[in-house]
Structures are given as structure tokens and as C-alpha cells.
Write a structure and sequence with these properties.
Elements: H1 3-11, E1 26-29, E2 35-38, E3 47-49, H2 65-73, E4 76-80, H3 85-97, E5 102-105, H4 109-119, E6 126-129, E7 132-135, H5 139-149, E8 167-168
Parallel strand pairs: 4-5, 5-8
Antiparallel strand pairs: 1-2, 1-3, 4-6, 6-7
Length: about 210
């Protein structure tokens, strides 16, 4: 699916979420006391801006309306590990472009098993854009798929937005007591070779 098709789909979305506080920017109290929420200031009655709690915001409510639509349709998840230059490059690309994403770290054997089970690979970084998975980092390929999904080429994030902190892929478990004299557990091994280059999203591509 090319960028034009994705843009057309996004433009035809039904504005069903604008009455929900999670997607609203204004709170409106009607004459009967009924409270509604909207992303546009009403012209016929007073409205109160919905302000984020605290100085920095990380939720979708902090995003511009058009960007929220893209995030809801094609959420981005990034899988990384420590001491991985390709992972750092991929993360920097997403942050520099202003793409909201969830980062999951793969640093333990449990993380590695979870990655293999969830994504069918032991290679990092892995990025998932909607239902499309890309294993390995290649700037042109990632950029092409982000373009096709409809993410803006330049950051549209508000100044108060902060990307959520990375969290381990597998839930933390209590480590068993090591036997005396036993060899220390070895960290999992990952492949971090770049993916195949792709200048543009392939014809007929679908997430």
C-alpha cells in the first residue's frame, strides 16, 4: 500500500473518538450540566482546555489529532538490546522524526525467548509498524514503511511530549540461587545485521 492510499484511508476515518477524554483537547459543559469532550473549541459555548497533568506528557492525548489517528492504526513497537549500535540508530531515527513508539528491551534469556515467541526472530533491532515486522535496521527501509503508514516526515510532537521509558520484554522473575562453583549464566546472543535495503515500500504493500 503506498502513501497515497494510506493517506486517503486516514482522511476517511470516522471521528468517533473525539468525544472521549483520551482524545480530547476541550471540555464542554452544556446548559443541562452534561459534560462532553471535543478536539475543537466550540463557538456557541464556553469550553475548558483539557490540560495534561504535570509538565511532561507521554500518552496519546498529548498528540495532534492527525498523528493520533496514525498511531492508533499503525502503532510502533521497537525491540532493542544493550550495546547495539543498530538499535541506537533505529531509536534515534524514530525520535528524530517524532514517531511515538513503545520500546521493549531484550537483555535476558527470558527476553530472548519472548522475542522468539512473539516475533519469530533472535535478531535486534526489530520494529513493528502496525502488523508489519522489519528485522534489522536499514534507514531507507524503515523510512519507507513509516512514510507508507502516514507518519509525518518531520516531528509534529508537542514540546511537552516525552517518549515512554523502555521496559523489559519479559516480566521480571526471581533469579534462582546459583550453585557454588557453577559457571555464570551467559547473556543471550543476538544478531544485529542490517536488514535488506528498500528505497520505497514495495508495490501492493500492506501492514
Amino acid at each position: 500500500m503506498n502513501r497515497i492510499v494510506v493517506s486517503a484511508l486516514i482522511g476517511g476515518l470516522v471521528w468517533a473518538g473525539v468525544t472521549s477524554p483520551a482524545f480530547a483537547q476541550y471540555k464542554v459543559v452544556g446548559p443541562d450540566g452534561r459534560v462532553t469532550y471535543t478536539d475543537r473549541p466550540p463557538v456557541d459555548r464556553p469550553a475548558q482546555a483539557v490540560k495534561p497533568v504535570g509538565g511532561a506528557t507521554t500518552g496519546d492525548a498529548a498528540l495532534p489529532f492527525a498523528l493520533r489517528n496514525v498511531v492508533s492504526r499503525y502503532p510502533v513497537t521497537l525491540y532493542t538490546s544493550s550495546n547495539c549500535a543498530a538499535c541506537d540508530a533505529g531509536r534515534n531515527l524514530l525520535k528524530g522524526r517524532g514517531v511515538p513508539f513503545t520500546e521493549k528491551t531484550v537483555n535476558t534469556s527470558d527476553d530472548a525467548r519472548a522475542l522468539q515467541s512473539r516475533e519469530g526472530t533472535n535478531q535486534v533491532p526489530v520494529i513493528r509498524i502496525g502488523s508489519k515486522q522489519i528485522a534489522g535496521y536499514e534507514q531507507g527501509e524503515w523510512t519507507s514503511y513509516l512514510d507508507a503508514a502516514g507518519y509525518p516526515s518531520q516531528s509534529a510532537l508537542p514540546p511537552t511530549y516525552r517518549h515512554p521509558a523502555a521496559t523489559p520484554l519479559a516480566p521480571a522473575t526471581a533469579a534462582p540461587k546459583a550453585d557454588e562453583g557453577a559457571a555464570p549464566a551467559q547473556p543471550p546472543q543476538f544478531n544485529s545485521a542490517p536488514g535488506n535495503p528498500a528505497g520505497n515500500a514495495p508495490p501492493g504493500f500492506r501492514f
